Each structure stands twice: as C-alpha cells, then as structure tokens.
## 1
Amino acid sequence: MSVAVIILAAGAGTRMQSDLPKVLHQVAHAPLVAHAIASTAELTPSRFVVVTGHGADAVEAEVSNFLPEASFARQEERLGTGHAVAQARPALEGFAGKALVLFGDTPFVKPETLSRMLASDADITVLGFEAANPKGYGRLVLGADGFLDRIVEQKDANAAEDAVTLCNSGVMCVAVPQMFDLIDRIDNTNASGEYYLTSLPEIGNAQGLKTAVVTCEEAETLGVNSRTDLAKAEALFQSRARSELLANGVSLHAPDTVFLAQDTVIGRDAVIEANVVFGPGVTVESDARIRAFSHLEGCHVSAGAIVGPYARLRPGAEIGPDAKVGNFVEIKSADIQAGAKVNHLSYVGDATVGEAANIGAGAITCNYDGVMKHRTEIGERAFVGSNSSLVAPVTIGKQALVGSGSVITRNVPDGALAIGRGDQVNKPGLAIRLMDRLRAIKARKQS
Ligand code: UD1
Ligand code: MG
C-alpha cells in the first residue's frame, strides 16, 4: 500500500517569541519538522507534502535540504487544520493510498505507532492518548462498539464531552482520494470559525465509512508551542536517545551529561565518558572511547580509537582505527589514519596524518593564509616534534622527522630530518653576570 505523508507546518508559533518559524526550532540539532518527518521514514512513504505558510520560504528551503523529494503546498491564510490539509490536494494528484497527517511541531510520534495506524482497516484512523490534563485538546467521543463517533474541540464541547480524557493527538490516517471529498464537506460553523480536520470522522460516519482510534502514550504527542516546551522536548529526546544507546550496548559513564544529536550513531561496546557533546553528523564505531569533556560534530571515529579528554573534533575529522586524539586537540577536515597519535594541544586542519605518525605536543598546521585554506600531508610513521608549525601547503614525507619548534615552509622528503629554527648559541657564565647586573640596577632604584 502506498503511503503519503502530509506535514502541517503553516502555523505562526507566536508563543515561541521568535523570528524563526516554529518548526525550524531545533531539538538535538535537527529542526522539529525533521523529527516529524523522520518518524515516518520506516514507512517508506512515496510522497511527502509539507503545508507551509508562516515563514514558508525558510521552511521550504530547510526541508528541501534534508528531504529533496518533499513537495510543498502553501496555505496563504490560516483557516484551520482541515483547510491546511486541503492545500495538499494538487501535490497528491493521482495518488491512491493512505495519507498520514502529522503536525510539524509534534516531533516524537514513534514509527511503530504510525505503523499500527496504517495497519488499521478503518477508512479514518485517529491517534488518541489518555491526557493527564486534557485542557485544549480535541476529545475523542467513542460510539457504543468502540468506533470513533466524532471529535469535539474543547471550545465546542458540552459538559459530558469536556469530561472525556481520551484526546486527539492530531495525527490522522485517511484513505486518499476519499479524504479530499470529505474535506470538501467540512464547514467552519464552530467556536473558532475554522475548518477543522477533526470534523472528518463525523462526516465519514455519516457516509458509512469506518472510523477507528489507535492509542499511544502521551509523551509521543508532546507538541512544542513555547520555549519551555522546546526545552522539555530536548530533555525527552536526550533521555530516550541515551536509553537507546545503553540498550544497544554502548557504555555511558554518566548518561545525563552526554548530549546527542538526532543523527548520532554509536557502535556497540563504544565507551562514552562524562560530559561529552555530540553535534550533528557523528559516527563512532564499536570499541572506540570518547573521553570526558570532548565535543564532536560532523566526524567519524573508527574502532579502537581514543578521543579526549577535552578533544574537539570538527566537521570532516576522520579518526582511523586505534588512532589517538588527546587533550586540548582540535581536528578539522583531517584524516588521522590508523594508529596515528595527536596527543596534546595540537590543531590539525585540512590535513592527512599517515598511519602511525606522531604529532608532538603543541604542533599545529597553519592551514589558512587569511584568504585560502591549504593542505598539509604527513606521511606514515613521520614524527613531528613538539611546538612545530607546518605552514601549508606542505608535505612531510614518510618516516620524516621534524625537530621541535620548527617552522616548516618547504616539503620534507621521506626519511629526512628537518630543522627549521634558529641555531642555539650558549654564552658561558653570561646568565649569572646578567642576573647580578639586573639585581644591582633594582637595588639602586630602591635606595
Ligand atoms: C489540534 C486539534 C486538536 C488536537 C490538538 C493536538 C484541530 C481542529 N484540532 O488543535 O483536536 O487535540 O491539535 O495538539 O485540528 N496548522 C496549519 N494551518 C492552519 C492551522 C493549523 O498549518 O490553518 C498547523 C499548525 O501549524 C500546527 C497544527 O496545524 O502544526 C495544529 O494546529 P493548532 O492550531 O496547534 O491546533 P490545536 O488548536 O492545538
Ligand atoms: Mg496546537
């Protein structure tokens, strides 16, 4: 069966107090709308339609980045959720299957919940939940045999309906093209004067269609309307993601202090120490260890590698098997190959560090000339002495040795020793004479 996903993302999100459209606010480094879309990935939908309105240009540009196949439907005036879904009609021309309607600001609906909805044989399936506090939610009014009789928005509810605690999450699954015929029949004679998507079950029942409710936990339906909600959503994501890693065989020394991104991938038997922050685009392979207080983004750490403590891996850092990146080291767009060591206080950017090479404390690549970036190639088993500056573009040959404190501006051949620093001069006895003279000057000044 084909599945189409319709994401409603036209709302203004006034309570966010933000210039950024609400659905672009991020949880775990991914916009809310990306979380909503990600929850449908396992269903392999054949079409994605995002209904945009407020900040449409920005929302469409961002969604196109991570989902190039998405199409967009603009809702020029916000006349209600039913009206919003109606805008998706042209984009679903010729589609026959089930449409799943989700809200762009509701990031945590589980894929298995959506699968259960699709598996229902009803024409209209609504995702409901038992609300701890039903205030503001549409109430699901069930018929005698458990089918969904109608949804009543709180504003339109009578006392008996108001007492119902089974609430509407907003997620709905409806057969297309029938859905659009039903939407044509929605009117706006209600307390808000809006075209409610929630009118569909009642209209469907009147036509003899089958309606049903699938339920989920309330946490899945958490919607983000304010910065407080956003912070709650972040906390919920982090706690779920940490539990998932632990369940998959990753050790977290202090789970509450590890922050993950939506796309963080960590292999079995990897160890993550305390206070580690993962930005977007990180993969850590099995058996790697990320030591405390490290910050990683856009990088790959291979099996057996050790990173940190206090390391910073920036985009394009590729850490090979059993390589070591130590304290106060920053790596950017650089390939640190198998068994190489960059253990202390270094900056390695736009570089290759060959297998088993050793970069001494404080050595850095000077990759930027103020206008352009240049590469540094360091051969296998090369040894770069402490506090050296490698002025790119430059190549250090295999098994070459760079003397400590060198400023290397020319290529070093394989196996060569390069020393690029002033010659040392020793002046016998001069230290003592100099100090005596300085002390005498000070004594004169004080007398
Ligand atoms: C909606 C449901 C309610 C449910 C609740 C769950 C309706 C009528 N009510 O109420 O039953 O319990 O969600 O959170 O559907 N949107 C548009 N265009 C519009 C209006 C809304 O794109 O014209 C989008 C919003 O950006 C948002 C979503 O639809 O993502 C829901 O709209 P919202 O106004 O928050 O609906 P609720 O009043 O919360
Ligand atoms: Mg809402």
## 2
Amino acid sequence: MLSTMQDVPLTVTRILVHGTLVHGRSRVTTWTGDAEPQRRTFREVGVRAVQLANGLRDGLGVVEGDRVATLMWNNCEHMEAYLAIPSMGAVLHTLNLRLPADQLTWIVNHAADRVLLVNGSLLPLLAPLLPRMEPLEHIVVVGPGDRALLDGCRPAVHDYEELLAGRPARYDWPELDERAAAAMCYTSGTTGDPKGVVYSHRSIYLHSMQVGSAESMGLTDHDTSLPVVPMFHVNAWGLPHAAFMSGVNLLMPDRFLQPGPLAEMIESERPTHAAAVPTIWQGLLAELTAKPRDVSSLSRVTIGGSACPPSLMKAFDEQLGVRLCHAWGMTETSPLGTVALPPGGLESEAEEWAYRVTQGRFPASVEPRLIGPDGSEMPWDGESAGELEVRGPWIAGAYYGGAGAEPLRPEDKFSPDGWLRTGDVGVISPDGFLTLTDRAKDVIKSGGEWISSVELENVLMSHPDVAEAAVVAVPDERWGERPLATVVLLEGTSTGYQELRDFLAERIAHWQVPERWAVVPAVPKTSVGKFDKKVIRKSYADGELDVTRL
Ligand code: ADP
C-alpha cells in the first residue's frame, strides 16, 4: 500500500527560495581585511543568485547538467554561486585552491568544467594552468585582481558584477529530479587520482536539515556562524546551504584565514558558532594567548576533519570559556557523520568529558557498522575495533567516472553490498558513540599489536611544551613497524627527548612508547590543514629527518 502523502522533490532551489523570502533579514557578512566588511541580506543574496542564474544561462549559455566550477574563498559571491548553480540545474564544482597544479588541472578536465568563477586574488594561481584546462569556455572574475594575467587566454573572460548587472530578478526554475547532480567535490587524493563525489539535491537538502538540527550544530537565525572551513572543502561542512535553509547569519572570512585576522573578526563581528579543523584552533589559541581578544560570543565551535586533541578542547574550555564540539566526517559523507554532544542524564563533568573527546554520535540517517580484521561485523561494546563502514541518504555510493563513463566503485572504498568503507578504524560504544583510533593506513602494526598514532599524538600534545606532534609508522627489523614521534616544541622551550619519553611512559603501555624521535620546525599539512603523514614517512625514508634513537 502506498502512502497518501505528496511527493515533492527536495531541491536546493527550495532552499534558495525559502531563505530569500522567509529569512530575508539574515545576513552574509564578508571580511575584507582593513576595510569595512561587505554586508548583504539573504534577500539581496537571493536576488543576486537569481541574476547570476540568468547571467550564466543567457550570457554564457549554461544548460542543465553543465559543470560550473568555483575557485574562490569563503565569501558572499561564493554563496550566491552555491545557490544559483544547482537551482538552475547545473552542477556546482568547488575547486580546492590548495591542491598541486597538476591535480587541479586534472580535476577540471575530468569534470569537464565549462565555466569557472574565480576570485581575482587567485588569478596568479589560475593563469599558468589555463592552457591545460581544455574544457573551460568562460572565466568569470569575481572581485579585484590583476586581470592582465588573463590577456590572450583561450576561454572568454567576464566580470562577475557585469554578468549580473541589469539581469531580471526572476527565473523560471526548472522542475528538477531530486536525485540529479547538484554539486561535486573531489577528495584530495592522498593516493592515486582524486575522486569525484557528486552530491544530489536530495542529499544536500537532507544533510542541511541535519546540520541545523539541535543534535548536530543546532543553529537558527539567532546565530551567526563563521565557517573557517573552506567552501571548497566538502561544501564548508554543509554550512552554507544549512544556513540559508534556517536563516543562520554567516560571517565569511574570505582569504583572511591567519590567526590574527580570525581573532579580530570574532571580536568585532561576534559570531556564536564557528567551524574549522584542529590546526586552525591550535593557531588561534596561540594567538589569543599572546594577544588576548574577546571571543566570548562563541558559544559553540565545531571541530573536525582530523582528531581534536583533548588537550586543545580543555585549553579552550579553561582559558577562553569556549566549547569545542568534536565531529567526524569525510568528503564522501557530505560530510556530517557524527557529532560529540554528550547524551542527557549524565551526572558529572568527568562523564561529559568521556563523551566530548569521542568523535561523536551517529544521527539516524548515518547507519554505521564495524568490520573486524577477519571481515566479520564487530559488536558495539566500546572495545572491539574494526574499519568503519556507513550508509545513508547523504553517503556516496560511487565516484564520478567522467563524462559518459560509468560511476566508479573501487573495492577498497565500497563493500559488495554497497556500504562506504571509510578507511577509519575505531570502536563504537553501546549508545552509538564512535571513537576513532586511527586511519587504516596510519595504524602502526608493531609485532602483531596495533598502536594508535592518534593516541600517542594526543598524549604528546598534552605536554605543556609541545605545540604539535605527529606519529607515523616506520619500518623496523624486529617488530615490522614502530612509531616515530615528530614533535614541534613551543618557542623558548627545549624539552629533551628523554623527558617526553618519560611523559608518554607514564600514560600509555610501555611497548607503545616510540624509540625514534625528531624535533621538527613544523608538521607538514595537507591542502586542507591535516597532518600530512605521507610526507613525514617520505622524509624519514629519504633520510631527511634528524632522528634520535633512545
Ligand atoms: P582527505 O581524505 O583528503 O583528508 P576528507 O576531508 O574527506 O579528505 O577526510 C576525511 C577523513 O578525515 C576521515 O576519513 C577521517 O580519517 C578524518 N577525520 C575527519 N574528522 C575526524 C575526527 N573528528 N577525528 C579523526 N579523524 C577525522
């Protein structure tokens, strides 16, 4: 028997129309450095998005299914693109501006992007790559920049404001299939070619509802959210669409992502929420310790993308009164997977902490299972570890295969019965809280036992003289693999290896304590600010690290 309910497609178009009309007073504020911030209401943003859709269709000939790429910072124009491109039936393709040139070019060609919106400040990065970006027909430059860099390039060059100017504030939105492609994002491709995840209207709509819900970020039009996480990194964790759906004011940092400007914009614009990877919060903590600013407006901060060291969470609590809330996800999961809000009914702060430091709880739409080393499903007992697999309406079921090609379902990424293999190893508690111990490829396999690199890093980073620590597996004749600890010391400290070793030995099993140590000036980071362990392993293999053996 079928239901008697209406079957209305869940689309980004609906988010655009709703946000413009119902939340017209909410604002997108874009930081501009020294000048007065740029401020636009959702009503203005909605109208400009309609004009952009008209400009793309009537000015540049964009049709349904075309890929329109963006190479942009987090700003209001990027928000307009987020709304306009999917709503007109085209596909928003956000490009990660920190990727190496070859990967960026490969991705544009693979996605067959016809149009590219680019911030003027990024033209020096784009211009040399253009001859190799063959499918591009049009470049639309947003904001100031050295446009002479594009002289003589093959694609036609346009100005964003000119493309919008005088266009109608109405658009006959197409009736879209909710399963149609709305946006795409390539994973950073730590191994092999980058892989394209294509989000549907339906997945974005449902994901936006979850992001806004009280069990995730819990945001309403009383809030202002600061997405430091880039809009080119998994749709800024879904915040732009979720914000437009619920009227959440947005504070966009544009290209001002260094700790100083971030502290300044928090103090002056007073956001209530922010989202970023741990390395950003590490930097901000150091900045605020050196030069205090008022960041008390932040009532909640979402932190994820890599494991948040508990010491960082405690420091924010104690020194700044700001609560960091841990979350886990990945490009393939839109990205919202888990959020670590402690359950109700707890009696002490210690009990709360035990939950806060986990990766968090799964919402109903993200169904997890743990697959143990022998391929069997592991119980949720908080102890049995396995690789995490997930499925749900905003979880990828395949990668984009390229124009006209079949989707890709590599065996190491998708189980035969269609679940996403996350490559993350961990345990799940009986009440559905996930604790990750490692990425499958970063686990240290020492003499038949597994050592969690994340656990060693967390303990090391709780030492008062340690700014950052990254632990990787290195080959060992006797044990197969052993941990190598690379440590960044805080300025003005000179703690010795022996002291760090003793500090670890007091807190973890003695056989897990590394013998190999190196102090480094900085931990290498990936294009999205995570520890780049591949680079550390390579420097070690190439003999570039000054390693001390204890
Ligand atoms: P990439 O694989 O290029 O890093 P993603 O941004 O999709 O791309 O990264 C997803 C991965 O980041 C997850 O599979 C997981 O390993 C890691 N990750 C994300 N959030 C957390 C977290 N809170 N704790 C530990 N690891 C995390």
